[in-house]
Amino acid sequence: MKLKFTWMLTLFLALVQFSFAQEKNISGTVSDESGMPLPGVAVLVKGTSTGTQTDFDGKYTLKAMSGQTLVFSYLGMKSVERTVGSATTINVTLQEDAQALEEVVVLGYSVKSVSEVTGSSVQVSGDQIASVPVVSVDQALQGKVAGLNISMASGTPGSVQDIRIRRVGSINAGNDPLYVIDGVPVNNSNFSGSSAVSSFSALASLNSSDIESITVLKDASATSAYGARGSNGVIVITTKKGKSGKVSFTANSLVGFQNNAVEGRKPLTATQRMELLTDAFRNSRGYDNATAYAYALASTGWDEETDFNWGNAVKNKDAVMQNYDISASGGDENSSFYASLGYNATEATVIASDFERISGSFNFNRKFSDKFDFSTSMNVSNVTQNGILEQAAYFSNPHLVRFFMPPIESAYNADGSYNLNTSVFNPLYQETVDITENNLTRALNNTSLVWKINDRFRFKSVIGLDYTIASYHEYRNRYHGDSDGAVGGSVQNSVNRNFNYVTQNSLAYNFKVAQHSFDVQGLVEYQKNRRNFLTGFGQNLPADGLYYLDTAPGSQAVGGFFDDWSSISYLGMLNYNFDGKYVLDATFRREGSSRFAASNRFGSFWSLGAAWNIHREAFLSGNEIVNQLRLRASIGESGNSQIDINRFQNLLSYDANYNGLGAVYPSQYGNENLSWEMNKNYDLGFDFGLFENRVSGSFAYFNKKTYDLLQTVPLSYTSGHAGQVYNAGTVVNKGIEIELSADIIRGKDFSWSISGNYATVENEVIALAKDSDGEDINIITGTRAVEVGQPIYAWRMRKWAGVDPQTGRPQWYLNGKDGELTTNYFSAKEEYQGGSAMPTFTGGLSTNLEFKGFFLNASVYFAGGHKVFEDWAFYTQHSGVYTTLYYNGVQDMMSRWQKPGDVTDYPRMVYNATGDNASRTSTRFLYDGDYIRLKDITLGYNIPNRFVEKTGLEGIRVSLRGANLLTWVKDEGLKYDPEVRADGFTMLTTPPTKSVSFNVNLKF
């Protein structure tokens, strides 16, 4: 027995020794068919977790035993397997995989190759936006997608941006696109705690370095799968996933500074202000210069020395930007992961405002077996924004103070203390004591399980969670500002908790009969959103430095509410493909929304799409010119339910006070017949690629008809209600979209490519709700109107006719168009002045050059065909006392009329409160909005591998980037930044910024 045991032990040790003896270092080089080395090729020992990646020279080294199999895989190439034998060197040549090389488009519910897509969509890779110096990923899309219009509602870091896809179709309902992250619709509301301060975007919680791609879906075939929420287009964001192979790390750092892209108008100096006021006394009272100046001095109390520059005082020159992140990725045959950590700190271009974000993400994929695949992703971030009072007429707004604070007043007293006896609030003092803080914590989780029932059936279950906690903290001091004096200071705290979850369960079936391929998918989706809001307000703080609500014993008030909404959808999708040449797809979605009454809750949405891949026809086979040529067309209907909840109900409110007791009153006149706003979309286009795809592009024509508009219709005041929401009206948007790109030079050491896009859109109101007499109910404001035959909110006002050279008095056209003039503002007629706030054409142009590791990228964005109205001009260009006695004007007024024969657009100065009505609303302040902006320019260098190897790293890239460095404006009268919010007004908010940043990217 002992002999037998000894023999077995000896045999076992021999086998172990033999096995270890067979493990050896295997090395080699992986290259393509031309002999060029391929970096980043995954090399795995089949059936194990052992693996590595090739370096920049295509070389690899790993341990393996004889008899084991090495698997070489690379994106766009056919995988290769090699068995380890006696040799220690295994060189591999990979061949292109034509099928894998075809670009894949992420559509949210599905992923398709370009040849299978029948709708209009544009995909932007994460590499194109990763290093763009913006805090919100949506801002990086400007100029990269035809038909996508992005305007900065505010340049304050973290603010919500106005984004429109193929212009606007709704009057009262929402026009914002739907955002989908990793296949799940998410909430992208404004989470600011106050409508008066800077807006606060939920998208600012995402780190752009974690984005794999962003796809913009525009037509019915691409968006109808999302039903009501896709009516205004869909922006699909896909985050990065792990890749098989050894763990690799990437680190990025960005440091830079930013300033306002356009400075805007300059405020008057004290001397200039006094000169204008002297003119006013002379023109109105008939004084000589000396007497008029004496009256001006007496009325203002100026010491003839103080000339304080409030604009420079509130400016945060060269505001610092910082962004750092590090990520890791790796895995084996059965699992992979991606993890990242990021930090961003960005200062605003004025005092008292900045932004900070800490974010982390983790994505894990695991193949449980041949039948089950599991995936989960988590993104958690905390964002803090110190905002400003920029959304309305608040004197504490640092952008407003330079036009409303007289320069004859200094921010400081003689002893250096803050001057609190100023005409309007001193923001320099308020910055040191007041608080305006938005804080957002957001957690996004998407988890899916795929069950491959067999080769044809696949079941997928997904749950997406989006949880946000937004808190707001506002403190106003006791001495100076909005809460001074009898109020005794104030504190406001609020918490907004929003939980949004989506569940999806789908069953997919595919089969093939000869050359006929079919893909069928059925999906059930349920979405629920719950919001809890609690706020408290208190005044009469007993001491300084008491920043929270429990220290405000006087005049306390609390408020709170809960609201929720839900939707359920049943989706069916069919895709038919004949031999890769002819593609048909159909989508049908039945969706119910809690925003409508039970009898009208469900709507049906559908689309049909077709594509013909002409380049795969026999008559084009073997040609050396056409590589891709495809026609596509789609038609479909989708809906819109973006209105406030419960608008269909008759509501009572209980927030009234009657003799110290609670009271109830009717607050809303509902409409049980309220239902979906509908969109019918037509899209026709073609895509092409020529000369080995050196020249490629696409063309599309679209026509989008929005009908059964959700609009508020005025009611008789005898009803006790101002209006009621109805389904009435029709709007049409139509236009073309062009995308082009060309590789001018393709070489080993030098390459040059250019690309561009151009889009037009024509918007027209076709029908509106009618009154009891059958007349259209037009929607008219002081500057704009909605009327049949006009674009939505067309500019409507009196037409400016300039200044009378003999009298210096302002003039307007009597009929609102041309001909007879009048100096009586109120006798002039209001008329449509052409165009609206939305551009009729937009586009972008970019170029890329690479030479032996150096690279230069540049992009330009342009927009035009719209008009911009200069808001606040009544005060800043008032020809009376508003600009010279109460507040402060702009330096352009120095070219005012002074004597008969002067030709100018600035009337005479007068000493009265009307200013001859010259600064009232008219086309005097309506400008052509056409502009071109150098959106981005980057110069960088990839350090050669022979130098990188010495550092122990795998790659080093350095670059210098400039954003919005140059802006050209067509209309010389438009001095403010032409990129304004979607309503077309130049508000005194933070304008778009220009920046310069230095970037370093490390791979190891």
Q: Into which percentage range does the β-strand content fall?
A: over 45%
Distance between the termini: 56 Å
Flag low-confidence runs: 1-21
Tell me the structural class: mainly beta
Rg over CA atoms: 33 Å
Global shape: globular
In quaternary terms, these chains amount to: single chain
Question: What is the average of the pLDDT values?
Answer: 87
- As a percent range, the share of helical residues equals under 10%
Largest sheet: 22 strands, antiparallel, barrel
Number of strands: 53
If helices are DSSP runs of H or I spanning 4 or more residues, what is the number of helices? Answer: 11
Please sum up the structure shown.
The chain is mainly beta and 1004 residues long. Helices cover 9% and strands 47% of the residues. It has a 22-stranded antiparallel beta barrel. Strands 10-15-16-13-14 form a five-stranded mixed sheet, with no helix packed on it.
Describe it for me?
The chain has 1004 residues and is mostly beta strands. The protein is built from eleven helices and 53 strands. The strands form eleven sheets. It has a 22-stranded antiparallel β-barrel. α4 (270-285) packs across α5. The radius of gyration is 33 Å and the shape is globular. 43% of the residues are buried. The model is unreliable at 1-21 (pLDDT under 50).
Structural topology:
Elements: H1 2-22, E1 23-31, E2 42-45, E3 51-53, E4 59-65, E5 69-73, E6 80-83, E7 92-93, H2 98-101, E8 104-106, E9 111-113, E10 121-125, E11 148-151, E12 162-165, E13 178-181, E14 184-185, E15 211-217, H3 220-223, E16 234-239, E17 245-260, H4 270-285, H5 289-300, H6 310-314, E18 319-331, E19 335-347, E20 354-367, E21 372-386, H7 398-404, H8 427-433, E22 435-451, E23 457-476, E24 490-513, E25 516-539, E26 554-578, E27 582-593, E28 602-613, E29 626-640, E30 651-658, E31 661-668, E32 677-690, E33 695-707, E34 710-714, E35 723-727, E36 730-746, E37 750-760, E38 762-767, E39 779-780, E40 784-786, E41 794-797, E42 800-803, E43 810-813, E44 821-822, E45 831-836, E46 841-851, E47 854-864, E48 867-869, H9 873-876, H10 881-886, E49 926-928, E50 931-942, H11 945-948, E51 955-963, E52 967-969, E53 993-1003
Parallel strand pairs: 1-7, 13-16
Antiparallel strand pairs: 1-4, 2-3, 2-5, 5-6, 8-9, 10-15, 11-12, 13-14, 15-16, 17-18, 17-53, 18-19, 19-20, 20-21, 21-22, 22-23, 23-24, 24-25, 25-26, 26-27, 27-28, 28-29, 29-32, 30-31, 32-33, 33-36, 34-35, 36-37, 36-38, 37-46, 39-40, 40-41, 41-45, 42-43, 43-44, 46-47, 47-50, 48-49, 50-51, 50-52, ...
